[in-house]
Amino acid sequence: MPGTCWWCGGPDFGTDVEVVGDLVLVAALSGVHVFRASADGLLAPTGYLPGRTAVLDVAALGGVVYLADGAGITVAALDENGALSEVKRLSLGKLVLGVEVNRAGEKLLALTTNKLRRFEIGGNPYAPFEKNSVALSGLLYPWMRVDGAWTYLNGWFGTQTVEGAAAGLMLRGSHDVRDWVDGRIVRDGVAERVAPGCANAYEVWEVEP
Q1: For residues 177 and 157, is the Cβ–Cβ distance under 8 A?
Q2: CA torsion angle for 173, 175, 181, 185 (degrees, to 10)?
Q3: CA–CA separation, 101 vs 157, rounded Å?
Q4: Cα separation, 192 vs 49, whole angstroms
Q5: CA distance to 5, 14, 39, per residue, from 60 (Å)
Q6: Residue 1 pLDDT > 50, yes or no?
Q7: Reduced to 3 states, what is the DSSP secondary structure of residue 190?
Q8: Cα–Cα distance between 134 and 149 in angstroms, integer?
Q9: What gap in Å lies between CA 55 and CA 32, rounded to an integer?
Q10: What is the pLDDT of residues 60-99, one digit of tens each?
C-alpha cells in the first residue's frame, strides 16, 4: 500500500477493512487508505487520511467514518469520489482498540482497554456524545462485533457479551477459553471462533437467548 509505517518508516501495514459501496477503506499503521473496487476486482487508490498514531480499527456509516487512533476517535467524511477528510476529534484519554456502528445508525461503540463505551450518533453522526459505558473484567479485549442490541468482545483468554438495554450497557456473559480469541463471527444465533497460535483451534458455539 502507499504510505509508510508511522513508527518504522517501512511499508505500511493494514489493521482493518471496511467496505462502503464500491469503496474499500483500509485502516493501517500510517492512517486510512481508500480504494475504489472495479467490477474486475482491481483496486484504485482514491484517498488517504494520515492517522495521529496507528489506526487500529475503522467503522463506517455511509459517508461518516470513525477511526480508532491513539487515545481517541477521529470522525471523518467520505465523499463519493473516495476522498476522506477529518471533521471532528473525540479525545477519550484511553487507547481506543476498536470502533463499531450498529446498522440502525443510532449508536457508536468504542472499545478501550478496560471499558466498552457507547456514544449516541442518531442526531448528528459527525458529533457523537457519550451516553454510558460498562467496565470489562479480565484482560485486554481488542476485538468486537455488534449484532443488534448485543456486542461480542474477544480478548486475552476469553470473551464477554454485552447487552445494550434502555438502562445502558450491561455485561451478560463471559467465556474463559484459556487462549487468545480471534475472529469471532456471530450470525443466526451461532458464533464461530478461530483461536490461532498454540491452540490452532476452530469452534462453533450456540448463542443462547
Answers
A1: yes
A2: -50
A3: 25
A4: 33
A5: 23, 17, 22
A6: no
A7: strand
A8: 14
A9: 7
A10: 998 999 999 988 999 999 999 999 999 999 999 888 988 9
Separation between Cα atoms, residue 135 and residue 130, nearest integer Å: 15
CA distances from 37 to 57, 96, 157 (A): 20, 29, 37
Q: Which residue type, as a one-letter code, is found at position 187?
A: R
| DSSP code of residue 79 | -
pTM, two decimal places: 0.78
Q: Cell numbers 505500511 correspond to what residue?
A: 12
Bridge partner residues of 150 (DSSP): 147, 163
Placement of cell 509505517 in the chain: 5
Amino acid, single-letter form, for residue 35: F
pLDDT of residue 203: 56
Cell of 15: 489493521
Asked if 126 contacts 75 with a C-beta cutoff of 8 angstroms, the reply is yes
Beta strands in 29-149 (DSSP E): 31-37, 43-50, 55-61, 64-69, 72-78, 84-91, 96-101, 107-112, 115-120, 129-135, 143-147
Q: Report the distance separating Cα 31 and Cα 52, nearest Å.
A: 8
> And the C-alpha cell for 91?
479525545
